[in-house]
Amino acid sequence: MNGDQLREALRDEMLGVTAPPQLSTDGMLRSARRARNKRRAVRACAGSATAVLAVAGVAGVVALSTPDGGDRRPPAALPQAAPPPSSDGSAEPMPTGPDGLPQEDRTARAGSRYDQAALLLDRLVTVVPAGYTAERTVSSETGKETLGTHQADFTGRAGGVELWSYLASVDVTKGTWRGRLLTEVHTPGNLLPTEPCALAREFWGMGGECQPTTVGEATVGVVVRPGSDDRFDQWAAYRHPDGVVVFVAQGAYDRQAPASPLPFTARQLAALAVDERLHLR
Predict the structure, then answer these.
(1) Taking a C-beta distance cutoff of 8 angstroms, is the pair 115, 98 a contact?
(2) What's the CA gap between 126 and 274, in Å, rounded?
(3) How far apart are CA 69 and CA 179, in angstroms?
């Protein structure tokens, strides 16, 4: 084979070889950036490790340099805000009814508490003064005619003791005058005020002008003039030594009607608050 034949054979061989793919400029840049970032990360880690070792060394020197050899490093930082207090959103359990099951709501519809409220109504009717008549009304619950209304409500617990209130109300008439008498009794352990006038003003949150009134050895708070809330004209409040609280209230339905004296004077109302007939537990 001469020189020309050799060159021709080499040319044919080179033409048969596949050319390598063309390099991408974007790919090259991405590869370069990855390599650069990797180098920076390595340097940063190395620097951090050096700094940690340096701080540890200084801390060790400070700890060893204290006179008593104790560790005087600064205490850990306190939290910026205390965590919110935990709260129990569970509802207060209702008392057990006479059927052995929890009541549906706060109002007793049977059982001893219901009976106490019914007894309170019976006794309230007996104190209606002469000249006034207890009026029968139609019950909104039963649709039947009844002499007044009564209700027993569970108001909560204090020291593990159930707290109850008994309410009784009766409409009274005298000629064309119509009004009502109402009493509300709270069982021992209640959180109502102890000072007589503070107690009287607490009744249904009505406030009013109060006068302390002495009945025997007892001091009764009597609101003789209501404030802006005039659902009643007068009411009295007394806390018995055993903790039972008794409220007694009286008022006219129509203050524009011809005037008639209220069933009780302020002093008589105070005496009624102390009356043992309304003292129920």
Answers:
(1) no
(2) 15
(3) 87
pTM of the entire predicted model: 0.67
Q: Where are the domains of the chain?
A: 26-74, 107-278
Angle at 41 between CA 35 and CA 43, to 5 degrees: 105
Query: Do 209 and 254 contact (CB within 8 A), yes or no?
Result: no
Q: Say if CB 163 and CB 118 are below 8 A apart.
A: no
Q: Is 273 helix (H, G, I), strand (E, B) or coil?
A: helix
Distances (CA, A) of 264 to 13, 211, 218, 257, 270: 132, 16, 19, 18, 9
pLDDT digit string (tens) for 62-119?
333 333 343 333 333 323 333 333 333 447 899 999 999 999 999 999 999 999 999 9
Q: What average pLDDT does this structure show over 139-154?
A: 87
Question: Which of 1-5, 259-263, 266-270: highest mean pLDDT?
Answer: 266-270
